[in-house]
Write a structure and sequence with these properties.
- Pfam families: DUF6594.
- InterPro entries: DUF6594 (IPR046529).
- Keywords: Membrane, Transmembrane, Transmembrane helix.
- This is DUF6594 domain-containing protein.
- The chain is mainly alpha-helical and about 290 residues long.
- Among the domains are: about 55-130; about 170-290, no CATH class.
- It is built from 10 helices and 7 strands.
- The chain has helices spanning about 35-45, 55-85, 90, 100-130, 135-145, 175-190, 190-195, 215-240, 245-265, 270-290, and strands spanning about 5-10, 15-20, 25, 50-55, 165, 200, 205-210.
- The strands form 3 sheets. A 3-stranded mixed β-sheet has the order 1-7-6. A two-stranded antiparallel ribbon has the order 2-3. The protein has a two-stranded antiparallel sheet with strand order 4-5.
Length: about 290
């Protein structure tokens, strides 16, 4: 059986304590679950990042277009009925309208509009979901390759990489990226020592759960170091520069890098980026002025 490479989970206890019996029960392994969808769904539910599914963007668009065209046809029928109405008083009052055909069309329009509006709202919610990241999608593919318990045709949805969405939304994309990078480095450089800190979720030696938040702490530490460099680095550089022009160049370059980091590495809004950049440049400018 092939092992799943670079697959990790956040800390969990591998055992449950039975208070009444005073014993320790071992948590059921993935391999103990019946093969097939029971095992596959258990694996996918083991971590929020594995909640990866197809968006079916093309089908949703086609469905919406069909409902839209259905409304357009009904609209045209209604317009024809209005233009060809012989009793003008029917058009002046809906209470006195005795045109049965128009009533049927209006009822059909009401039903079609409800379906159309519901589809728009549903699609809007789906489109808000983030695109699935390559890392969890790749981990699922690796696990399926090593555990062929599902029909190949029914796991083919993972091949539609451009149409995958995730139910797991991370508020900080930069931290998530750093966590993945740190995991890869720990596995590559300290495989044995890192594995000793982990608790196996399954009998596959390459599927395990970190017992603590080591990866998270290291990632946040790196992010904090980067913040210190952004804040203290220009100050130290300007302290060794006597020319005002050189200091202004340092401030301009630092502010540009800072704003670029906010735009690329975070989900900050445009106004938030502008405010943060202005505050950052102001602090550095005040420091230079005092010097």
């Amino acid at each position: 059986m092939e092992s799943v490479q670079r697959l990790f989970y956040r800390a969990k206890n591998d055992t449950d304590h039975d208070i009444e019996a005073g014993s320790v029960k071992e948590v059921e392994k993935i391999e103990d679950i019946p093969a097939g969808y029971p095992r596959f769904s258990t694996f996918m539910s083991s971590h929020p990042s594995f909640q990866v599914y197809r968006r079916f963007s093309s089908l949703r668009t086609r469905d919406l277009l069909i409902k839209q065209d259905r409304l357009a046809v009904l609209e045209e029928k209604l317009n024809d009925l209005d233009r060809n109405e012989e009793t003008l008083s029917f058009l002046a009052s809906c209470r006195r309208d005795r045109n049965v055909e128009r009533q049927k069309v209006l009822s059909a329009i009401d039903v079609a509009l409800r379906e159309y509006d519901a589809t728009i709202k549903r699609n809007t919610e789906i489109l808000k979901l983030e695109e699935a990241r390559a890392r969890p999608a790749s981990a699922l593919q690796n696990w399926i390759a090593g555990n062929p318990c599902i029909a190949r045709s029914e796991t083919g949805f993972l091949q539609h990489e451009d149409d995958l969405m995730t139910l797991f939304s991370s508020e900080d994309g930069t931290t998530m990226y750093l966590e993945g990078w740190v995991e890869d480095k720990l596995i590559r450089l300290f495989s044995r020592s890192y594995k000793s800190r982990c608790e196996a979720l399954s009998r596959d030696p390459m599927v395990y759960i970190p017992r603590d938040s080591l990866v998270v702490h290291i990632a946040r530490g790196l992010l904090g170091l980067l913040a210190i460099i952004f804040i203290i680095g220009p100050v130290i550089a300007c302290n060794y520069l006597e020319s005002m022009l050189s200091r202004l160049i340092v401030i301009t370059a630092s502010t540009t890098l800072f704003i670029g980091f906010l735009l690329i590495g975070t989900r900050a809004k445009t106004v938030e980026v502008l405010v943060a950049g202005a505050a950052y440049a102001t602090v550095l400018t005040v420091f230079i002025t005092q010097q």
